[in-house]
């Protein structure tokens, strides 16, 4: 009964990395090609849940916008906007806060993981999955493409939509996650292949950013943690480091895992790392050029984001007018 609508977000905590790109952004561009109704938010309000530097955040927002455009997000088709420019996100967040419980939020794996890294856990870090649900619900999104790390957050969003509908009358679709639950859906840190590649990783050498120079990419892949077996095989459980490289290699070349492994039969790990570097550099070259082109035209970026905010705001305001009425506000 709900028209198909897709929402997804990306934090401007740092620059976009290979995990974001292969696990999320590249899939958004595929959905866009299929003429799906899609809304993408640069979720800066999520980025302030951990300590941050304001001028850096401002730059990161523009870099993220430039990177999304460089990856092929087309603002004439996709609604692309910055979360903080649509204040309804915070308003719906507040309303949803009363529809869930503290124990439920405390058990979310991302919270457990991140809260371990700070001494005094900010309240914002605790409730940010609720803000994420508000992001989705404001646009009455029916489908949310995310990496497998986000599954529990989508389940919370589903729970909040049901809870709202039950208490105040049917008004929100219960969203579906679009997740590819296979080994390849998660790109791991090059330095600690037990963890996912992440912007918030304390060790930036484990993360390949889309804006990295060829030299930086070569250096990072050269130092990627592998194991003491020198041949190349794919076994994520036993050999996470090498398998992560194989997965990255397969994804950037569009080849199957089997083909990649077969062609690497004669190589040792050091030689194979060079091959992976070349493939990654080749794949990212045109994207990196486009990022720089967009960054050199800040006025155009500002214009694109303002147009996106206007479109998003219209939808968000319509939803919030109905929400206020349902709540008796
Ligand atoms: P990060 O954890 O790097 O800050 P975000 O929270 O901004 O990433 O997530 C943006 C999108 O990228 C989400 O859909 C998320 O699931 C996906 N994503 C993040 N890290 C990875 C990864 N290492 N592998 C695959 N997808 C990822
Ligand atoms: Na994240």
UniProtKB/TrEMBL annotation:
It comes from the Eukaryota. It is found in: Mitochondrion matrix. Belongs to the class-I aminoacyl-tRNA synthetase family. Catalyzes the attachment of tryptophan to tRNA(Trp) in a two-step reaction: tryptophan is first activated by ATP to form Trp-AMP and then transferred to the acceptor end of tRNA(Trp). This is Tryptophan--tRNA ligase, mitochondrial. The chain holds residues 78 to 406 of 719 of the full protein.
């Amino acid at each position: 009964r709900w028209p198909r609508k897709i929402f997804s977000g990306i934090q401007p905590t740092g620059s976009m990395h290979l995990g974001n790109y292969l696990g999320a952004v590249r899939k958004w561009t595929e959905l866009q090609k299929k003429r799906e109704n899609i809304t993408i938010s640069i979720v800066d309000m999520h980025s302030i849940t951990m300590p941050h530097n304001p001028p850096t955040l401002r730059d990161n927002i523009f870099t993220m916008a430039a990177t999304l455009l460089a990856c092929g997000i087309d603002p004439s088709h996709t609604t692309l906007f910055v979360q903080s420019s649509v204040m309804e996100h915070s308003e719906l967040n507040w309303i949803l806060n009363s529809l869930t419980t503290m124990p439920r939020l405390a058990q979310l794996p991302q919270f457990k993981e991140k809260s371990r890294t700070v001494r005094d856990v900010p309240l914002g870090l605790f409730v940010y999955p609720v803000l994420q649900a508000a992001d989705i619900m404001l646009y009455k999104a029916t489908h949310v493409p995310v990496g497998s790390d986000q599954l529990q957050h989508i389940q919370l969003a589903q729970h909040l939509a049901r809870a709202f509908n039950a208490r105040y009358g049917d008004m929100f679709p219960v969203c579906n996650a679009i997740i590819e639950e296979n080994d390849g859906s998660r790109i791991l840190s090059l330095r600690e292949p037990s963890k996912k590649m992440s912007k918030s990783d304390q060790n930036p050498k484990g993360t390949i950013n889309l804006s990295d120079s060829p030299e930086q990419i070569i250096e990072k892949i050269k130092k990627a943690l592998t194991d003491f077996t020198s041949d190349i095989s794919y076994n994520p459980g036993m050999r996470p480091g090498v398998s992560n490289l194989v997965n990255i290699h397969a994804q950037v070349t569009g080849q199957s895992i089997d083909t990649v492994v077969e062609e690497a039969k004669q190589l040792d790990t050091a030689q194979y790392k060079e091959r992976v570097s070349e493939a990654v550099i080749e794949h990212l070259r045109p994207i990196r050029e486009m990022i720089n082109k967009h960054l050199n035209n800040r006025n155009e970026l500002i214009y694109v984001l303002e147009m996106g905010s206007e479109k998003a705001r219209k939808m968000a305001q319509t939803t919030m007018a109905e929400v206020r009425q349902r709540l008796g506000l």
